[in-house]
Each structure stands twice: as structure tokens, then as C-alpha cells.
Amino acid sequence: MTVAAPLTGVVPPVCTPLTPEREVDVPGLLRLVDHLVEAGVHGLFVLGSTSEAAYLTDRQRRQVVQSVTAHVAGRLPVLAGAIDMTTPRVLDHVAAVTSAGADAVVVTAPFYTRVHPAETARHFRLVAERSPVPVIAYDIPAAVHTKLPAGLVLELAADGVLAGLKDSSGDLAGFREVVTGARGLSGDTGFAALTGSELVADAALALGADGAVPGLANVDPHGYVRLYRLCRAGDWAGARAEQERLCALFGMVGVGDPARMGGSSSALGAFKTALHLRGIIPSATTADPQVPLSPQETEQVGKYLAAAGLL
Amino acid sequence: MTVAAPLTGVVPPVCTPLTPEREVDVPGLLRLVDHLVEAGVHGLFVLGSTSEAAYLTDRQRRQVVQSVTAHVAGRLPVLAGAIDMTTPRVLDHVAAVTSAGADAVVVTAPFYTRVHPAETARHFRLVAERSPVPVIAYDIPAAVHTKLPAGLVLELAADGVLAGLKDSSGDLAGFREVVTGARGLSGDTGFAALTGSELVADAALALGADGAVPGLANVDPHGYVRLYRLCRAGDWAGARAEQERLCALFGMVGVGDPARMGGSSSALGAFKTALHLRGIIPSATTADPQVPLSPQETEQVGKYLAAAGLL
Amino acid sequence: MTVAAPLTGVVPPVCTPLTPEREVDVPGLLRLVDHLVEAGVHGLFVLGSTSEAAYLTDRQRRQVVQSVTAHVAGRLPVLAGAIDMTTPRVLDHVAAVTSAGADAVVVTAPFYTRVHPAETARHFRLVAERSPVPVIAYDIPAAVHTKLPAGLVLELAADGVLAGLKDSSGDLAGFREVVTGARGLSGDTGFAALTGSELVADAALALGADGAVPGLANVDPHGYVRLYRLCRAGDWAGARAEQERLCALFGMVGVGDPARMGGSSSALGAFKTALHLRGIIPSATTADPQVPLSPQETEQVGKYLAAAGLL
Amino acid sequence: MTVAAPLTGVVPPVCTPLTPEREVDVPGLLRLVDHLVEAGVHGLFVLGSTSEAAYLTDRQRRQVVQSVTAHVAGRLPVLAGAIDMTTPRVLDHVAAVTSAGADAVVVTAPFYTRVHPAETARHFRLVAERSPVPVIAYDIPAAVHTKLPAGLVLELAADGVLAGLKDSSGDLAGFREVVTGARGLSGDTGFAALTGSELVADAALALGADGAVPGLANVDPHGYVRLYRLCRAGDWAGARAEQERLCALFGMVGVGDPARMGGSSSALGAFKTALHLRGIIPSATTADPQVPLSPQETEQVGKYLAAAGLL
Q1: Min CA distance, B281 vs chain D (Å)?
Q2: ipTM of the complex as predicted
Q3: What is the DSSP letter of D308?
Q4: Are A38 and A5 contacting, i.e. CB atoms less than 8 angstroms apart?
Q5: Which of B52, B87, B89 should one mutate to test binding to chain A, selecting the residue with the greatest count of A CBs within 10 A?
Q6: Residue C4: left if φ>0, alpha if ψ -120 to 50, beta else—which one?
Q7: What sign for the dihedral angle of Cα B29, B31, B32, B36?
Q8: Mean pLDDT, to the nearest integer, of B127-154?
Q9: Which residues in chain B are closer than 8 Å to D236, comparing Cβ atoms?
Q10: Which of A200, C41, C97, C138 is within CB 3.0–4.6 Å of C102 for a Cys-Cys bond?
């Protein structure tokens, strides 16, 4: 299956369930995929940040893409992250995930190294040249420590290098510049502007986003599908109410004690704990060196689920 | 060969010469190694930041370690970087470089993901548990965006987790805290405190560092070996004069036009260009997506070499 | 006049016209105030960042507040910034601007010094205790280098310490948390949640903001008043079209050459140049050490005005 | 008295003792000055960061400078900070402190506003033009969030704009570039390169610094005077031992609980507590909104003093 032109709708960044031994729990992963597909999501994004791609070995990454693409069998598009530091290493991942069946690759700016916008542009051009599938830029300054300038994204979109943007920057004004600027292009290049925000997805859709890639959609895919439909129907009051319910639910990412763990441990731990409590995956195990939630923190996740009507 | 306890002296982070097609130039690499060994360096560090480890594929990384360890054949210790985002991925690199013959591994804090000091500690503990060779912490906030706290390094050193520190943080006061604090430990654990600074190596040695890992030692290994011996001999005036000559030479890292390229392209481009101009490697090619130096910038590198008496 | 409870609508942060000798141009300032009031704005904010408060001496600050409050004479509320590093210095400004007639004060977190959330909370509590008028928190991390946590703002609002928030953080998700969380409070405390964004004011109003404080409203107050009314009327398509027109106009803040000047020089220079080209103020002079726009850059500002139908 | 050309030696940034009501405790301040002068310091720096200048009102700032200059009566040079956001406000402070008797002014880059190196240069040029006394640049990125580039400092030194640098950046390599580069200038301009480091003052002096401005010299001026003399005598082993003793003493800045207070509260609180415990000032009160040390934290400061032989 090829990516719709452009990709639209709710595209969850799929969590990667792990066994207690920290191997990919393939049955758990496929159960999670079924849970998402049945809720009506429009695509799947594997090997993103929410998928703990940064923690998975190359072998595990391949396992994830192969299992999911085989299971989905073209029913909806599967995007795969090719997350690594620089062009040559990203290209190895592009080869791996596309030979495993990914319909598009999601690529960040270079990181670890000190990078210049001209080098970031060169990076995306080189990746796109050699990728057999469309390339979607992943703007995630919290991880890579540079922000993709709207002008650069639009230039690469106009040149057919980028097929879309996943914006996890938190900068809605910059995202709007891309959305508005890409409008002229939408004819044949089919540029997809996707927000990574859990919290202002309604606002992003209102200003013209094509879709949303919220990590919380693992936990409550029905909520985000509903939100998407309300926005598309122009029911902004209804969308706002649904969004506010999801914002309250998202509070779960803060359950982890900041004296004991970082933001990834807390947020990914909360998502996986919620999936476990909802009976979708058998273990809330996160990858090393993350710290697991305590029993008290786990209980709090349950309260968030109950308050949102999910437990 | 095993790592001296503790490792001391000048340990250059070895550049990785590339062919114009951006493959590892193995003969060039071995010529560079000979150039360093003949100058009297005390160890070699491959697959560090100066080695463009962030840009090398796994296949290329293996090629580098295998060629160098086979060529060096135990004459001096070979440290290898195992640079990746998190514990599971780092462990794959540890396995690869140690099976290729590395005498020690050099490991950073996790990056890309938002990390907590407790998770960084856990990361080093897990890596050390499974590494067949000593683990040296690599403090490089410019790349990983967190600083290793001195207290954490000392705690891990006391527990035998870390065999040393390569400090590329630029924070000499923090490094001093490690050097002073590790003094009590030096008995059997053999903790090696190594500065990554090109510019205040004399000061670091004066306050008690065991050695230096300066990228510029690729270009002028004799200079850094001389500097090390002057410091060890207590000839601080002589050391300062030599250090100031090396500081002037280091100015070459700024030749790249900041409107056209980032700091890596400029610094690594200058080192490789200098090695090329000195006749040690056949091509100054750097890895993608870095931008090459222009002819004018190349000429400037030559002027730095000439001023330092190296051309 | 006291501040409406809560303050709502469009509240421009008023530019401070300067003479070529860099004294406050009082007649120019009052002409600008008239231009804003006639456009239907709902309040005025003097001595904010857009007012170049950081560049005005204490004497000039007093001059600004006195002239504006006397001229406005209670027709609409006048908020005044009390921008300084810490509590004792802020309190001096609070005394000065309130004795000059300000209806509310706008106060940032401490800056220059390394501050802790507990100290920021203490700062607002001490200021509010001694301020004769309501205190509005000013969240502007680009200037003060800390972000006001939503939880802290809500706690201070619940305790009656803060009468509102001006959010110039660019973080719409965080702002939403304040807006939603303050809803329970709105009864008697009258908390006003104001966005400082020029670019997503429509989104902020859609999610429940009480008003907007956009610097660009100096240049096009009619546009922002229109936008506010469209939002209040629930005409989201109309609001989006007006907002997109204003976004295009806002492009003027980027006319300054980044090789020659910083973001303040460019943005404040563009606003003042636009006011000058529109015939509202006699000189586009900005305060020292800012760099003035070149003739070519000035011409570009004119093109932005023409494209927006303002020239 | 005029500033020596160049200024050399130990120049403590003088703490500002406060009464429990948070007014300047003038007798306490003068007792502290006597304590410093009797220990043999070479100059005094009032209204710096360690002096809590960011927390003092304009009235209190004047009080400090007047009291100290009158008391010192030309026996040694008195430098005064003119700490504020931009040129016009800094110039008001320059006028105030010089009319109160300061022999030189210490000025940072602009802050709060987004600044460009060209504007920073313009700032120092404008201040120097109108200052009746020499201007010393204060490089303190932790407070102002930009770093003074070495090249800029040297350019301004060569043009006679700057009479010196107080480097509190923690970047010894950058400081070295200024020290080395200023050597050619030393003839008549008399540029003074002063380190603000408590912890690597020996290293800074070894590489050519003219003097040191360590906050900890309030607590142990004899130690820093001894350190300075050992360095000048070329007794580097002795200097290192003294420096390591002072490093251990400096550990006191970390006594404050990071869950309860920020770095300023902890460090300034520890210095003032130490002065109080040593019987030099009557109260350890710090300015608002800083948080005071607890009895347990106060006790810990005492232990640091005892371990260093100061109690």
C-alpha cells in the first residue's frame, strides 16, 4: 500500500510492548495494533519516540516493522521512523524499514553533532534521493536540539523532497506557517502536515493540519478519532470538549516522581501502564535505562483512566 | 593488551579518513595511526566524535576498529567509542567493538531521550555489567545535552563501574572535582581522568589529569606529546609556551564560513584538510551531510599549519 | 478606573515612540494611543517588552505611564509593566507606575539571578501583598529564561495573588492548562488569561482565552479587534482568514538582516517603521543599543503593509 | 584613586550585609570591607552578582558605593557594577556609582532583550563614551544568557573601549584567548584580565590572568591572597594545595536543598552564613525573594568552615 496523498487523520505513534526480559512482545504489539485499527485510526507510525525507537536495537526495530506491516497487510499505511544521528546511519535504517514493508519513513534532523540548517537540508535531500518511499520530516527539538525552520520545510516540500511533516515542537505558530505555506503545494506533491500534539490537536486541525500523531492515542484511540471527526465536521464546541477530556487524561504523563526519573520514563511508563491496566498488553515494561513506575504511580494512572471513563 | 591502570598520556581521538566515495580509507587510516604512534602517543581512541563516529555506519565502525587493533597489535591500548542513544543500542556496539579487539569502551550518557541522572547512572551500571572491557565515561554536553555531574562520576568510579572519564565538557572546575575526588580511589581501581580539551590541556595536567585526548593531536601529535612531557617534568613555563603554540594552531577549526556550515563541518574539515596538506591522508573528505571546506578555507588551514611550523 | 473583572479583549502592548535624540516622543505616543482607542481596543499595556521597557530609564518609564493614563482618563484600563530583576526592584516600579495612574501591573519571574519555582512564587506573593492594584503575571521565557509552570500560576490565582496571565511563551498547550484550570476560579477572583501571540490568537481565543496582547496590534489594531469579534461571534472561518492575513503581515518582524542585528532590533524596528510609514508616529527611532533598519529593510516593511491593505 | 593600569591581584566581589528588615547594614558592610582590606586584597568590587546587585534598589545601590568609597578613601580601587538590561539604564547606574566615587564600572552584555554581538559591541562603546571612569566587561552567561566572544572583547580592548574583563563564564579556554590576545595591547591600554572563578583561579593565573574576583574571598580572603602570592612566586605545587583547600571550602555553596531553593539562595546564603558564623556580619539575611538556609543547612556551612580551619 502506498501513502495516501496527502496522509490525513489520526496516525498513532505505536507503543512497543516489551516482555519482562525486554524483548519485543510481538503478540502484545499486534493486539495493540488491532485495538488501534478497530478504533478507526487512519494510519500507524512505528519506531517513533513514543515507540521507544531510541531504545530498540536494530534487530528489534526490524521485528517491529515486519510484524506490523505483515499484520496490517495494506489495510492502512504504516510509517516507520528511521531515527539515527546522521545521513549514512539513517540510510541504513531506511533500507531496513522499507525492505520490511514500511510505506513511508519519518526522519529527524541530524543530532549528537552540531548541525547547520544547510546541513539539515542536505541531510533530507540525500535521504529522499535514496529512499524508495516518501520521506516525512520529524520536528522534535526536545530530542534533537534544533528546530526545523518553517521556511526550510516549505522549500524541501516545494522541491518534492518532503512528503510531510510530523511536528512535535510544541510551536503551533511555526506549524501554522508550514500549513499555510504548503497550501499552494497541495496539488500534486501531496504534503501532509501532521501535529504531534496531544493537547492542541483541535487547534492544529482548525488551522488546517491534515492529521494528528498523538502518543496518547495508544491509550484512547477512540477519543482522538472522535476529535478528528468533530473537527472535520466543523463542530468546534464538541471538539473542544473532547480535547479537554483528552487533556485531563494526558495528565498521566506526570505521575512519575521527578526526583527518581526523567520525562521519558514517566510518560512512556504511564502510556504502557495504561495499556496494561486496560488489558491490551500483558506488561508495562519499558526499555533500559528507564525507571519503572512504582505501585503508587501505577495506581494514579488507573485514576486518570477511571476519570476519563476508560476503566 | 589491556588498558594500563590507570591510562595516562596523550590518547588522540583518531580521525577516520574517507575515500571520495565516503568509504573508510583503511590504508589512509593506518598511515595516520603510524604517524601518531611514531610521535610517541600513549594510546588511541577510535570511534569518538572527532572520528566522525556519529556519521559512520555499523559496518564502517567495525572496519575501523578491526583495522586499527590488528595494525597496532597490542603496542598501545586502543579505546573505542560505543556511541548510541541508550543502553540496549550501546551494548550492541560494545559487543561489536570488543569482538573487534578494543581494549576499553567509551560511552556517553543517553541522548535523544530526556534523561535523569538516576537513569544515566543505571545506564553506565548496565553497560559495565555486560562489557568485557573497562568502561570510560564520555562527558560531552555539546553532543548529548546533559552534563555528567562530578558526584555521579565519582560514585560510579568508587563502585568500580567506571575506569575513567573523558571530559569534553569545557568545564575545568567540574573536571577538577573529579580529579581531586578520584585521588583516594587510585589504589586498585585505577581511575583515569582524561581531558578532551585542546586548549587548556596544560592546566588540566597541572591540576592532576592523567592524560589528554585532544582532537588536534591528529594534526600535531608531536606537540601534544611534548606538552605532556613538559607538564610531567614540571616545566610549566615551557608547557605554557607549547600550549599557546597549539592554541594558535587550533584556530583552524574556525575557518569554515558560519553562514554555510556548522561547527562539525568546519572543525573536522579543518583537521582532515590539515592531515591532507601534511601528506598523511589522501583525501580531506568528510561524511554526509557535512559541507566541505572551500578552496579559500583550505588555503587558510595551510596558513595555520605554516604559522605553527608544520608545513 | 479599575480593571474589569476579568479583563477581556484586545490590549495592545503600546510601542514607545522616541525622538531622534531617543527621548520619549509624548505627542507621538498619544497619537498612537488615539489610533488604538479609535480602533476599538479594550485596554492598553504600557511598559511591556514591545514598549521597549527594558530600554527606558526610570524617568522615561514614569513619563510614559503619566502621559498615557492622563490622556486616556479612565476610558479604558491601562496596565503597566514593572519589569526588573527581583522583588525589591520590581516593588519600586510598582510604586512608580501606580502613583502615575496604572490600573494593574504586569510582572515577570525574577531574571538575571538563578531562580527556583518556590522563589518565583514568593516573588509574586510579595509583590501582590504590597501592590495597590491587581498583579498580572507575564510569562516570557525568551526574556527571563524560565517558564512559569501552569500549576504555579493556578495556585497563585486560586490564592488571589494573580489577577491574570499574559502568556508570551509560545506554548499554547501550557496556556490551555491555565485557561481550563482557571475556569473554576472565575467567579469572584476574575482571572484574565491573555495570550501574547500575534499568530495563534484565534486558537487561544477558541480554547477560552479572555483576550490578546499582540505587539502587531500597534500596526493593525483594527485587524485584531475584528479578529476578536469574529471569535466571540463563533465565526471561526472568518477568524481564521483574518488571522492568516495578520500572520502574513507579521512577517515584517523578519526584515532585519540577522548578520547585522538581533531579533529585538528587527521586530521593534519593523513595528515602529510601520507606524511611521502609516503616518502615526514621526520617527521610527529605537532605543540603544538596537540597530536601525536600513532603507532597503524599511522598504520591505512598506511592502508588507501594502500587501495587507494598510498603505 | 584611579584604577591601576592594569588592575591586578585579588578583588573580592563584596557581599552586601542586610539587616533583618532587608536594608543595607552599613556598619556590617564596613566591617566586611575592613576584614578584606586587612587580609591584603588588592581592590574591591561592589554591586556585582555576589553583592546581590540584582536585588538592591537604586537607593540601596547608592548607599553601598558611597559607604565603601568613603570608608576606603583611596587606599585601594573600588570597582562598581552597573548592572541593568540595556544602555540607557546602565548609563543611569554609571552616573550614580561614579558620582558616588567608584573608580571603574563593571558592565554586562544587555539582557532580557534578544541581543546580537553587534548590539553588544555598540552597547559597550556607548557606555564607554559616556563613562567618566574605565569600563570593565562582565562576562556572565549564567545571568545574561549570552557569552562575550573573545574576539569581540579583544576588538573593544584594542579600541580602548574596555579596560578589562571579569570572566565568570566558566570557560577557561575562551578566557585564555583573551589573556593571550591582550598581551600585545598591554603597553598603554592596561587591559586587566580577571577571572571570576573560585575553583580554577590558580590555572587562570598560571596562564596569565592579572587577577581574580572570587565570591568565596569574602569568606576566606587570606586564602585567596595567599594563592595569588604563591602563583606570582611560581610556587605551583603550593598554589595547587591552597586552591584545593579553597575548592573544598567552596562546597558550601551546595548546602541549600535544591527542592526548596535555587542556586543563588544557596550560594549567597552560604557566603553570608559563613560571614555571620565567623563573626564578621551580624545577620545572614539575603534579599527577597531568596529563601533562607535552614538551621541544618547553616550547621553544614559551619562544618565547611571548620574543615578549612576557619572556625
Answers
A1: 29
A2: 0.97
A3: T
A4: no
A5: B89
A6: beta
A7: positive
A8: 98
A9: 206, 234, 236
A10: C97
Tell me, what's the pLDDT at B185? 80
Interchain contact A118–B (C-beta under 8 A): yes
Neighbours of chain D (3+ CB pairs under 8 A): B, C
At C185 the pLDDT is: 80
Cβ neighbour number for residue A63 with a 10 Å cutoff: 18
Number of other CB atoms surrounding residue C303 within 10 Å: 13
Radius of gyration from C-alpha coordinates of chain A:
18
Residue B205 above 60 pLDDT?
yes
The full DSSP string for D226-293 is: HHHHHHHTT-HHHHHHHHHHHHHHHGGGG-S-TTT--HHHHHHHHHHHHHHHTTSSS-----TTPPPP
Amino acid at C93: H
Cβ–Cβ contact D58 with C under 8 A: yes
Residues of chain D in contact with residue C60, where contact means CB-CB under 8 angstroms, are 88
- Global pTM reads 0.97
DSSP string of D180-210, one letter each residue: HHHGGGTTTT--EEEE--SSSHHHHHHTT-S
Partner-chain contact B207 D202, CB within 8 Å: yes
Residues of C in contact with A206 (CB under 8 A): 202-203, 206, 236, 240
Q: What's residue D2's pLDDT?
A: 46
> Taking residues C56-81, what's their average pLDDT?
98
In this model, does residue B2 exceed pLDDT 50? no
In this complex, the residue of B60, B86, B111 whose CB is nearest that of residue A112 is: B111
Contact B203 D199 (CB under 8 A): no
Instruction: Decide: C80 and C132 in contact? Cβ < 8 Å.
Output: no
Is the pLDDT at C252 greater than 70, yes or no? yes
Helix H or strand E segment including A137? strand A135-139
| pLDDT surpasses 80 at B42 | yes
Test the A interface: residue of B112, B124, B168 with most A CBs within 10 Å: B112
Mean pLDDT of D156-160: 96
Chain-chain contact of A173 with C199 (C-beta, under 8 angstroms):
yes
Given a contact cutoff of 8 angstroms between Cβ atoms, the answer to whether D105 and C74 are in contact is no
Helices B58-72 + B26-38 axis angle, to 10: 40
What confidence tier does A1 reach under pLDDT thresholds 50, 70, 90? very low
Tens of pLDDT, residues D226-245: 999 999 999 999 999 999 99
* Cell numbers linked to A14: 505505536
CA atoms within 13 A on the CB side of A126: 20
> Which among A86, A114, A262 has CB closest to B116?
A262
Are A79 and A45 in contact, with CB atoms under 8 Å apart? yes
C9 sits in which H/E element: strand C9-10
Query: Looking at CA atoms only, how far is residue C87 from chain A in angstroms?
Result: 28
What does the alpha-carbon distance between residue A29 and residue A147 come to, in Å, rounded to a whole number? 31
pLDDT on residue A3: 47
Mean pLDDT, chain A, integer: 96
**Subunit contact D289:C55, Cβ cutoff 8 A:** no
Contact between chains at D113 and C49 (C-beta distance less than 8 A): yes
Distance CA A258, CA A223 (A): 28
CA distance C175 to D265: 29
Rounded CA-CA distance D141/D86 in Å is 15
Name the residue among B114, B126, B142 with its Cβ closest to that of A263: B114
D208-231: burial string, b at 16+ Cβ within 10 Å, e else: bbbbbbbbbbbbbbbbbbbbbbbb
Question: Contact B200/D203, CB-based, under 8 Å?
Answer: yes
Complete edge-to-edge strand list for the sheet that includes strand A9-10:
A9-10, A211-212, A192-195, A164-167, A135-139, A104-108, A78-81, A44-46
C197 with A173: Cβ contact below 8 A:
yes
Does A243 lie at the interface with B, CB-CB under 8 angstroms? no
Q: Given a contact as 3+ CB pairs under 8 Å, which chains touch B? A: A, D
